[in-house]
Structures are given as structure tokens and as C-alpha cells.
Specification:
Two copies of one chain form a homodimer. The first copy, chain A, is α/β, with parallel strands linked by helices and about 325 residues long. Chain A is about 40% helix and about 15% strand. Chain A has a single domain, classed as Rossmann fold. Chain A has a seven-stranded parallel sheet. In chain A, strands 7-6-8 form a three-stranded antiparallel sheet. In chain A, helix 4 packs across helix 5. The longest helix of chain A is centred in the last third of the chain and has 16 residues. Chain A starts with 7 loop residues before the first strand and ends with a helix. At the A-B interface, helix 3, helix 4 and helix 5 of A face helix 3, helix 4 and helix 5 of B.
Chain lengths: ~325, ~325
């Protein structure tokens, strides 16, 4: 991959991004990669600051993520929150004992006045991760899901507590639109050699990052090729509620539908081979598209996908 | 025990008190007992408010204390603090995962504005404990140990981190002397039918309670007999650093030495049969004394000891 233009900056959400980045670090020097990570899912649970997307990306890159659950640490136990449950707390957000330690450390450091970016950097060093992770913002940016009855719920309540009901009417990212980009985000994007959009939920993972003022401008100013990976495989999201959320914002649940959302952002798009029939529609948007196997069953597939993405980027200069 | 004058109020420290109270609740209706508990050991660890004496008394009365360790919950795990250690935290204070939950709940409730007494009451109800536990004070009352070189350390640092060195020069309870008694403490003492001093460390467990303004006055105003149990067995403390601390305040490390510290407080004193030779010296202080087996190997011995204490109290009206 000698033709990869570094640094590579990836816009990242949760588990889909985590899996893709595990492949990417196999084909590009990890120190030349920066992930700008969604913090729209961040919330206080049990008194600690939880950053779900930062943590799953971190744990995955450290090789200690719980791959079955798609969140948390492999082999973690849940004694603390079970004990909190006995003391009357709601425990629908399953934060493991070691995962709690990460979040408690973050909370303590934030209370000491450290910024989320600095704390994230400390934690990723402690986990031995070479790839930089930048929170999209240090300001609170809760992504709010608006449901049928006008009920407004935090994304984690929607996803975890309520089981991702399908009656999504709108997604409110207004907090992100008023937030400042996190330290290093604009600089990283402006000086990027290649910009990737991970196969994450376009509405609630990539959407909040792009909603932060200055992010789109920095991407444009970089002059770098921007390539997205479709989070849709065979017409449906691999994991999570992207279908309800895409419908909620009036988008088609398809590789093509996601490409339309990204039309003003990306010049390249990798979709799954199962959605190959949509390739021409994507290209009609002025986006160069490639279809391959994007279902990252293991890190080998993820690395092969990363190679495809970078090769496509190389053709877009 | 029909002659027990209730309510019974017990001044309590840590493990010695916890063992004694487990016996006491077998011979007196637990709802007729109130323990006024030392909070001089309280400290923030890992961002949570730890109340070591309240918790060991609570866990013991709930039947779920770790009896081997003398602190924490039986079968607890230590994954959270081990993970905090990997993130750079000192972890000499071994707070288990479920124990952490108790402390985190306390911390969250305190942050919401609840008082330590109310929170303690919530927790003891959640643990199904019928005996009321009253923090001696809701104000911070750190017991400070002054060591040879003039070093001043919090009691938990002295005991746990430093392994209880013997060069104690003084014990600074000045924080307790400036604290307000906790809600209910003065009322409970004033209306007590019987007041007991548990076999706890006289210097750093009972000492801070007595140092809180109003506590001695309330005991005197009650007109109730006051009986202490010696924490010394065979000339040495059963557990903990009472010897260094007694020497540090110029007291003799003996049943007799502890009785002298309590001379202006108690009218009755139960010492261990192994220290029987000191009984006459104790009585010469104007204290009625009895010697029995005070080594609480099991709850049966503790219950028998409680019966002896209450019988002695009954003779002192």
C-alpha cells in the first residue's frame, strides 16, 4: 500500500467503525491513522461519563472488545451494576466492572478539569493503542430520537432501553450543531491525506460528526479524497437500528440511499457485493463506486476491505 | 432478657463492633437497637465516598460481610479497581466491585443533596437490616494520625497503605471536635435506655464519636447505664493497630488502660477472662467490672457476650 496518502483520518461511530479500523491498522501504519469519533451517544450512567463509541473503538483496537455483545470488554463481569440494581438503580445500560473503571477514570479526570480529548488520549495510551482517537467535540452533543408520539429520548435510551422502536419521526442533532469541534479535529481533517467514512450508522454516528460546525469545511479544505463504506449489506444494516433511523430521516434503507446522504461529501463509495445492483445508481451521483465483500466476519475481511477503500481513494486524487 | 432497658444505643467502630452487634441483635429486638457509628475513617477513594465503619457494621448485620478479610463483602471481586490500577490509580484500598456499588450509590445520593444519615438509612433498608445505623456526623471528620517525623496521614492511609507503623506520636481528632452530631444522634442517646460502647478501637473508633460536640452531654443526660466492652484480649488488641495508637495517646495497652480512658464515661465494663487479673484495678476506678470470654469466634460467643453486657447494665440502674 505504498500509494496510501497519509495521514488517514476516519470518521467513526461504534461497532461497524471498530471492526473496519481493526482492518485498517493492518494495512496502514497505525500511528498515521486518526479516528474522529462520534460523541453523540455519550451519556452519564450511574454517575460516570460513558462514551460508547470511543470505548468500543478503543477496546476493539486494543484487541479486548467483547465481540459477541458488540460493546464492552471481553470477559467482563457485571457485579457492580447488579449491586446498584439491588440498591434501586435502573440497570438497562449494561456497563461491566472493568468497563466501569474506564468510565470512572474518565469521570475523575474530567472533574479534575482535563478535557475529553486529553483523557481519551491517556486511556488509549494505557490500552496500548497507537491510533489516535479524537472526540468529535468536548461539548455535550446528545443525539435525540423523536418518536411517534413526540417523545424525545436520548439515543442510548432509544437503542438500549427501548429496544430501537421503528416509529422514528426525526433525529435531533441540534446539540452537535451548536458544539465546538474537539481539540485536534479540524487540524487533523485539514491536513488529512485520505479521509474515510467508516461503515457506521449515517444518521446517528456519522451525522453528528458532520453536524459539528467546521467539520465539513475542514474536510473540503483538505483536498483529500473522501471514501465511505456502506453500512448496508444486502439491503439491511449489519447491526443496529439504521433502518428505522434512515426511514426516520426520509432516506432509503439501501446502499444507494446512504450514498445519497453522502453525495455532497464523498467522491468514492464502497458497497457490498450483495448490493452490486445499486452501483450504477451510486455512480450516477458522481461518486466512484466499488462493490466487494464488506461483511467483516473476521479481521482478514476487514483488512481486505480497507485495502479496497484505500485503492479507491488512490484513484480519486 | 426481659430486663433490658430499650432502646439500646451502641457506639460503634469497625469489625469489633460489627461482631458484637451481630450477637446483640440475637438477644435484643433489632428494631430497638441503634448504632452510632464512627465516620472518622470516611474518605474518598476512586471518586466514591467510602464509610468503612458504617459498611462493615451494615454488611455484618446483613450477614454478607467478608469475615476473613474483616472488610467488604463476602465473595466480592476486585475487577474494577484492578482496571483502575491499569489506568494509573493507586489501588492499596481494596474496594470490591459490589462494595464499590454501595459507595457509588452513597456518592450519587450525596451529590443529589441527600444527607449521609438518610443515605445510610436507605442502604441499610436495601440490605434488609432492622437495626438503625446513625453516622456520628454528616460533616467531614477525618481522623489524622501524627507519626514520628511529624507526618500527618489519614487513618486509612496509616492503617491500610502504610501498614500501621508503630511510631504514632499523636492522634488528631480536631475535625470531629468541630463537627455537628449527625441527625438523630443526640436524640437517640438522650432517650436511650441502655448505652453500650462496642469493643472497638478506643482511640480512632470510639474517640471520634465522643469528640463530636454534644455526644458526651447527651450520654450524660440520658441517665442510662453505660457499659463498655474491652477491645483488648490477653493484653493485646484482637485486630488492628490499637496498641500503637493507645501508646501514641499515652495510654497503657491493656484492658485496664482502656477502662481508664473510659473512666468518666462508663459505669460498667466487660473485660476478657484472660485479663481477669486487671478486674480489681478497673473496679478501683469506680467501674463495675465483669470478666468473660470476649473473643467472638462465632456469633454464639458474641450473643453470650451481649447477654453479659446487658445483665451488667441492668445492675447499674
Amino acid at each position: 500500500m505504498s500509494s496510501v496518502r497519509t495521514p488517514v483520518v476516519a470518521l467513526a461511530g461504534g461497532i461497524g467503525a471498530a471492526r473496519f479500523l481493526r482492518g485498517l491498522v493492518r494495512v496502514v501504519d497505525p500511528t498515521q491513522i486518526t479516528a474522529v469519533v462520534n460523541t453523540g451517544d455519550d451519556r452519564n450512567f450511574y454517575g460516570v461519563h460513558v462514551s460508547p463509541d470511543i470505548d468500543i473503538v478503543l477496546y476493539s483496537l486494543a484487541g479486548c472488545a467483547d465481540r459477541e455483545k458488540g460493546f464492552g470488554l471481553e470477559g467482563d463481569t457485571f457485579r457492580l451494576i447488579e449491586a446498584l440494581g439491588a440498591l434501586g438503580h435502573e440497570t438497562w445500560f449494561r456497563l461491566g466492572d472493568r468497563d466501569f473503571a474506564t468510565c470512572q477514570h474518565r469521570t475523575l479526570r474530567l472533574a479534575e478539569g482535563a478535557g475529553l480529548a486529553a483523557v481519551t488520549d491517556e486511556i488509549r495510551r494505557a490500552f496500548g493503542v497507537a491510533t489516535k482517537l479524537l472526540p468529535m467535540s468536548e461539548d455535550p452533543c446528545p443525539s435525540i430520537i423523536v418518536l411517534g408520539a413526540g417523545t424525545r429520548v436520548h439515543f442510548e435510551e432509544y437503542l438500549v432501553r427501548d429496544g430501537a422502536p421503528s416509529d422514528v419521526e426525526a433525529v435531533d442533532l441540534s446539540a452537535a450543531t451548536r458544539a465546538a469541534p474537539g481539540p485536534g479535529v479540524v487540524d487533523a481533517l485539514r491536513s488529512a491525506g485520505t479521509i474515510l467514512v467508516c461503515p457506521s450508522n449515517p444518521v446517528v454516528s456519522i451525522g453528528p460528526i458532520l453536524a459539528v460546525p467546521g467539520v465539513r469545511e475542514a474536510i473540503a479544505a483538505s483536498g483529500a479524497p473522501v471514501v465511505a463504506v456502506s453500512p448496508i449489506v444486502g439491503g439491511a444494516p449489519v447491526k443496529g437500528p439504521a433502518d428505522a433511523l434512515l426511514r426516520g430521516v426520509g432516506a432509503e434503507v439501501s446502499a444507494r440511499g446512504v450514498a445519497r446522504l453522502y453525495a455532497d461529501l464523498v467522491s468514492g463509495y464502497v458497497l457490498d457485493q450483495r448490493d452490486h445492483a445499486e452501483l450504477a445508481d451510486v455512480e450516477s451521483l458522481g461518486i466512484r463506486a466499488v462493490s466487494v465483500d464488506t461483511l467483516m466476519r473476521d479481521v482478514g475481511v476487514a483488512a481486505e476491505l480497507a485495502r479496497t477503500v484505500l485503492s479507491l481513494a488512490d484513484t480519486l486524487r
